[in-house]
Design a protein that fits this description.
Layout (H helix, E strand, L loop, with lengths): L16 H6 L1 H4 L5 H9 L2 E5 L5 H11 L3 E5 L24 H12 L4 E5 L8 H5 L4 E4 L4 H14 L3 E7 L2 E7 L7 H4 L15 H20 L8 E6 L4 E6 L15
Parallel strand pairs: 1-2, 1-4, 2-3, 4-5
Antiparallel strand pairs: 5-6, 6-7, 7-8
Helix pairs in contact: 4-9
The protein binds zinc ion.
The site of zinc ion (ZN) has 8 residues, from helix 8.
Length: 260
């Protein structure tokens, strides 16, 4: 089963008594155990686009006991963000989103180290953002940022969980550089996108966020099969799921020359 080893995994790392109690209900799961918890505790996850999707991913990864979360998101909170961005506060409108998200996560689980970075992903900062991450979660709403992340993760050989939605449709996959299709295998250049023509319901972004967090936890701990080489497409209106194969392209401008 595919899983990632957190870099610098310390074989003698031991959970504290508080950690054993806090996470006892998941430690008892088959294929998880104390070693799974140790792996989560030694992992760093970069989450980009800390909104209705990424913010809720962060919440469930903090609940699971991921050791460090790096949150990258520019901009200040708007009133129309509050139908889905559950880490925010009503009285925080006009303030930086990522700082409110970090504050909520620290209150929820002081065990998880949270590093907020009040920046959008750019061509200039992306290599620095992904450096040191065990896993990257792409939850941005902007295809340019998604492609920069894709390229940086492929180059650094860091797994990227790719999560996206549109209306009542959601999709999820995991990109393992050199092994599975990357974003440019599917489309060499970012598709056109109108960010204003994009309705979203909080329960839809939240549902996809939980599945995304689960994918990250599986990837790190090995507690279940991941969506490598497979695109899961959910219709949340009809509550149906289709799984589609994603094929790596040997002429991909990003990963075509990358050896497994
Ligand atoms: Zn590719």
């Amino acid at each position: 089963m595919v899983q990632v080893e957190p870099s610098g995994l310390d074989a003698v790392f031991a959970l504290t008594d508080d950690q054993r109690e806090r996470y006892s209900r998941q430690i008892q799961l088959p294929d998880f155990g104390e070693f799974g918890q140790q792996k989560l505790a030694q992992s760093t996850v970069l989450i980009t686009g800390v909104g209705g999707l990424g913010g809720t991913v962060a919440l469930y990864l903090a609940a699971a006991g991921v050791g460090k979360l790096v949150l990258a998101r520019g901009g200040t909170l708007r009133l129309d963000d509050l139908n889905r961005q559950v880490l925010m506060r009503h009285d925080g409108v006009g303030e930086l989103r990522v700082l409110q998200a970090a504050e909520s996560l620290r209150r929820f689980n002081p065990d998880t180290l949270v590093e907020p970075i009040a920046e959008y992903v750019t061509a200039d900062n992306v290599a620095g953002l992904v450096a040191g991450a065990t896993v990257v979660v792409d939850a941005t709403h902007n295809f340019e940022e998604r492609y920069w992340l894709n390229d940086a993760c492929v180059q650094a050989r860091i797994p990227m969980v790719e999560s996206a939605m549109d209306g009542m449709e959601a999709q999820l996959t995991t990109i393992l550089p050199g092994t599975t299709a990357c974003l440019r295998c599917r489309s060499a250049t970012p598709p056109p996108w109108d960010r204003r023509n994009f309705g979203v319901l909080g329960a839809v972004s939240g549902a996809l966020a939980c599945l995304t967090a689960l994918e990250v936890i599986k990837l790190i701990t090995g507690c279940g099969p991941i969506l490598s080489g497979t695109l899961a497409r959910f219709d949340l209106a009809e509550l149906t799921l289709r799984k589609l194969p994603l094929l790596r392209q040997s002429d991909c401008p990003c990963c075509g020359a990358l050896a497994p």
